[in-house]
């Protein structure tokens, strides 16, 4: 040990060597700075930094938040749909739930904190779902997905992987088994949903076959019409006005449209909208490929009513009658705000949207609200025809012909009954003969 210590250089020798090395480095640096141009030095420096970064920090992270600017982030929605099919043993946890006690109806989701491993083109990719805080006043949270990959795979992920996710999610969403219906929680400031299981289809609707086919063709053209709308400079949306007496099947038609398109429904109660700004915020939080439904719009807000009627009412009730004021300082929802939502600039914030208004009194609506160009399709839902009755008889009694049909056809020409009234009569028994006889008695009473 003493021998080894005796061979070590002295402190003065070490300091002298360090000084010589520092001087040499400074000299070389000075020479390089004078010889090598600044752009070349910056390039070398950046490449050296990248190399060291790749060596010491080889991972890269993508962050995908639930909201993007003022609207929902469709990339987040696509990732959520895609990863729900990739949950496996690597996840460590899974979110499950059901709207029934049938064990075969269990649905699975992604819980916050869950980690999912995905494989794509030889790359191993790690996903996790996180959440940023909670607002106690409005019960809001900001969720985000985090994708961790190798830095060397960053370009391939941007060019290929996200395109793969988008196309896969589109197929998943169009073929989803369960639709959802949303209602806006004004106090919580968010949409809340439930599983939508309405059984109505175009096959079961009590409507003239020609009218059904026309609506189906319009819907199919709309879904395929992205390029059509873009070339004509129009937002990718369409509007339906369903009007007619109560019980004529307006809600059933909405359900049939949702089941045909496989679109979720956002049921908006305009009474919960405090102002035009509030309406814009609510609508931009809906998703693409959805139906926005406003039922009984003539009763929902005075902003939709004919202004000539409002003027008469103002003379009786005062000036504040024009808008739905919730407080003296709140201007309320106005007709201008409603029109801007239908076909103004804000109507373009989203794609593949179907807007449906229903009303029992079309004559009470302001003409500006329903003029051509705002509501694309005007659908009158009238009283039950004989064709509609035959459809209901096939649905409820499983019969297409009966000797009593002739008498019923003659009576339906003289009596106005709604499809809802007909359905109620056909549900009284399982015996077709007794049901039809009872229905004839009902029509005779209604005629008299």
UniProtKB/TrEMBL annotation:
Residues 239-385 form the AAA+ ATPase domain. InterPro entries: AAA+_ATPase, AAA_N_dom, At3g28540-like_C, ATPase_AAA_core, ATPase_AAA_CS, Mitochondrial_chaperone_BCS1, P-loop_NTPase. GO terms for molecular function: ATP binding; ATP hydrolysis activity. Belongs to the AAA ATPase family. BCS1 subfamily. CDD domains: RecA-like_BCS1. PANTHER family: BCS1 AAA-TYPE ATPASE. Its cofactor is Mg(2+). It comes from the Eukaryota. The keyword Magnesium applies. It catalyses: ATP + H2O = ADP + phosphate + H(+). This is AAA+ ATPase domain-containing protein.
């Amino acid at each position: 040990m003493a021998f080894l210590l005796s061979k070590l250089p002295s402190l003065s020798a070490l300091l002298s060597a360090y000084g010589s090395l520092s001087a040499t480095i400074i000299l070389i640096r000075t020479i390089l700075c004078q010889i090598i141009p600044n752009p070349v030095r910056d390039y070398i420096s950046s490449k050296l930094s990248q190399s060291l970064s790749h060596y010491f920090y080889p991972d890269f992270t993508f962050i995908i938040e639930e909201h993007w600017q003022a609207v929902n982030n469709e990339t987040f929605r696509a990732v959520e749909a895609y990863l729900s099919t990739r949950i496996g043993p690597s996840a460590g946890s899974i979110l499950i739930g059901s709207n029934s006690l049938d064990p075969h109806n269990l649905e699975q989701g992604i819980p916050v904190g869950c980690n999912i491993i995905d494989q794509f083109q030889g790359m191993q990719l790690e996903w996790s779902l996180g959440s940023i805080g909670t607002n106690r006043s409005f019960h809001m949270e900001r969720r985000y997905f985090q994708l961790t990959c190798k830095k060397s795979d960053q370009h391939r992920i941007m060019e290929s992987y996200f395109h793969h996710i988008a196309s896969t999610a589109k197929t998943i969403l169009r073929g989803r088994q369960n639709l959802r219906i949303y209602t806006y929680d004004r106090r919580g400031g968010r949409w809340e949903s439930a599983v939508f299981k309405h059984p109505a289809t175009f096959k079961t609707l009590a409507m003239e076959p020609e009218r059904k086919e026309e609506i189906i063709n319009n819907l199919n053209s709309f879904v395929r019409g992205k390029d059509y709308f873009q070339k004509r400079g129009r937002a990718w949306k369409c509007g339906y006005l369903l009007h007619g007496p109560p019980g004529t099947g307006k809600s059933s038609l909405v359900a049939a449209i949702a089941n045909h398109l496989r679109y979720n429904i956002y049921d908006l109660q305009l009474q919960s909208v405090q102002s035009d700004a509030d309406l814009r915020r609510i609508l931009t939080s809906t998703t693409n490929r959805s139906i926005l439904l406003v039922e009984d719009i003539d009763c929902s807000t005075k902003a939709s009513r004919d202004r000539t009627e409002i003027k008469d009412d103002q003379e009786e009730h005062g000036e504040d009658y024009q808008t739905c004021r919730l407080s003296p300082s709140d201007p309320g929802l106005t007709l201008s705000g409603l029109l801007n939502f239908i076909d103004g600039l804000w109507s373009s914030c989203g794609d593949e949207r179907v807007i449906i208004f229903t009303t029992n009194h079309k004559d009470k609506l302001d003409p500006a609200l329903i003029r051509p160009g705002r509501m694309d399709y005007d659908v009158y839902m009238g009283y039950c025809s004989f064709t509609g009755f035959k459809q209901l008889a096939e649905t409820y009694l499983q019969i297409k012909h009966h000797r009593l049909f002739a008498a019923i056809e003659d009576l339906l020409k003289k009596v106005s009954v709604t499809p809802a009234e007909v359905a109620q009569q056909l549900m009284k028994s399982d015996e077709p003969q007794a049901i039809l006889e009872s229905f004839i008695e009902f029509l005779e009473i209604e005629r008299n």
